[in-house]
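Hey, weird one. I pasted the tyrosine--tRNA ligase sequence into the form twice and got a warning about non-standard characters only the second time. First submission, copied straight from the form history:
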Amino acid sequence: MMRAQVNLKIKQAFCPPKIVDKNPCLEYIQYIVFPWFDKFEVVRKENNGGNKTFLTMDELVADYEAGDLHPADVKPALAKAINEILKPVRDHFNSSSEAKILLNTVKKYRVSN
């Protein structure tokens, strides 16, 4: 998946403000981002609270439920983290001719029910 595709998918993701339960973006952070990076970094303007690094999911949940962390802050940070995780895979498929051939072959397959 290309960087722009990840950004678009996350931008469109369901992520209701102040609601943690059954929030897919927060679940991605909990089960993918924290285990991978041991932190979650949010970049935002000073007038929106400035940058913040969350070291635990409990800390992130507290800010999110309080409204101190908004979906508009979570989504770009989540997309950035996912893109960082996917970078080595993208690099592999871009640098290996065998991997490029495999990728093109797989893209030609159609899913049937």
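That's the output from the first submission. The warning seems to come from a hidden character in my clipboard, not from the data itself. Helices lie at 3-11, 24-37, 57-66, 71-95, 97-108.
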